[in-house]
Structure formats: C-alpha cells, structure tokens
C-alpha cells in the first residue's frame, strides 16, 4: 500500500509527523480526501478535524484553520493551533465555549467581537468533539 508523509506544524513547533494511507481535511471549499499521488495544491482549512488513516485505524487532530499543502507523497498542514486528542484540556475548551457563548449574547452580529467570539466558539466545539 502506498503511503503519504504527513506533517502538522504550528508556530509552537511540530504536532505530528507520520506515514498514513489517507488524509481527510475540511478545506474552505469542502471536504478533501487525499491519497498518495494526489495532484499538488494549497488550500485554506476551516476549524475542523484532520483525519489520518492507516491500517484500519483513524487518528484525529484538531486544527484551528491554516493551510494544507499537498504534494504527491507529502501532506503538510500549517495551522495557528493544532492538538492531538490526548493534548486537549476538555475543561479549558468547555470554559472557552461558555465565554464565547456569553460574548455572543452580549454583542451584535456585525461586531468584530462577535466574529471573534464565533471563531472561539468553533475552536472550543471542535476541541470538545475531537477529545470525545
Ligand atoms: P483559550 O481561550 O482556552 O485560550 P483559544 O481557542 O483562544 O482557547 P488558541 O488561541 O486557539 O486558544 O490556542 C492557543 C494555544 O493554546 C495553542 O497552542 C493551542 O494549541 C492551545 N490550546 C487552546 N485550547 C486548548 C485546549 N482546550 N487544550 C489544549 N490546548 C489548548
């Protein structure tokens, strides 16, 4: 079975380096399933889970946006923040979710603070989902 080298990198350093049979990411244009030999591309990612498949097992990584760069044998994900499930502090994410929800109730949808709270809420929900 052909495989892909996958790297997930953040400003704090590498989060994951490994070899996988398939990588699925949620780009802004939609879900992208990447197999070895994929055509080269760069795409912006949503706040979402990256799914890494190998030998019948699936691993998940939480990413807070960023970009995926695909080459035939290499997938590089550059994200502002990325966590493996074991690294996620669920209590922290639940607190971030509550804070964001309170802010969304206090601000107007066109406010910059409202937009920031929406993104914070998405990051928190994504982390809670992936840690489960
Ligand atoms: P918080 O309000 O809790 O800081 P946030 O969504 O604003 O959440 P980010 O700015 O996305 O946090 O991330 C800042 C750093 O903290 C990153 O290194 C990220 O990996 C880490 N981080 C954020 N939330 C969690 C969490 N629940 N568990 C583990 N690491 C986290």
Automatic annotation (TrEMBL):
Comp. bias (Basic and acidic residues): 89-111
Membrane topology recorded in Swiss-Prot or TrEMBL: Peripheral membrane protein
GO MF, one annotated term: proton-transporting ATP synthase activity, rotational mechanism
ATP synthase epsilon subunit C-terminal domain sequence ranges: 87-131
Location, primary (coarse class): membrane
Keyword annotations: ATP synthesis, Cell membrane, CF(1), Hydrogen ion transport, Ion transport, Membrane, Transport
Region Disordered: start-end pairs: 86-111
Location of the protein in the cell: Cell membrane
Presence of keyword Plastid: no
GO cellular component: plasma membrane; proton-transporting ATP synthase complex
CDD domains: F1-ATPase_delta
Top-level taxon of origin: Bacteria
Domain ATP synthase F1 complex delta/epsilon subunit N-terminal: 4-82
NCBIfam families with a match to the protein in the record: ATP_synt_epsi, PRK00571.1-3, PRK13446.1
Record family assignment: Belongs to the ATPase epsilon chain family.
Quaternary structure, from the entry: F-type ATPases have 2 components, CF(1) - the catalytic core - and CF(0) - the membrane proton channel. CF(1) has five subunits: alpha(3), beta(3), gamma(1), delta(1), epsilon(1). CF(0) has three main subunits: a, b and c.
Function: Produces ATP from ADP in the presence of a proton gradient across the membrane.
HAMAP family: ATP_synth_epsil_bac
Protein name: ATP synthase epsilon chain
Taxonomic path: Bacteria, Bacillati, Bacillota, Bacilli, Bacillales
């Amino acid at each position: 079975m052909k495989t892909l080298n996958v790297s997930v990198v953040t400003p704090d350093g590498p989060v994951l380096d490994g070899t996988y049979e398939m990588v699925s990411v949620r780009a802004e244009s939609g879900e992208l399933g990447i197999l070895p030999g994929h055509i080269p591309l760069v795409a912006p990612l949503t706040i979402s889970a990256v799914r890494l498949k190998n030998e019948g097992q699936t691993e998940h990584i939480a990413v807070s946006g960023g970009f995926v760069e695909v080459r035939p044998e290499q997938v590089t994900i550059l994200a502002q923040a990325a966590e493996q499930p074991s690294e996620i502090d669920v209590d922290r994410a639940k607190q971030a979710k509550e804070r964001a929800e309170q802010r969304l109730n206090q601000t107007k949808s066109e406010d910059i603070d409202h937009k920031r709270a929406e993104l914070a809420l998405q990051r928190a929900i994504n982390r809670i989902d992936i840690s489960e």
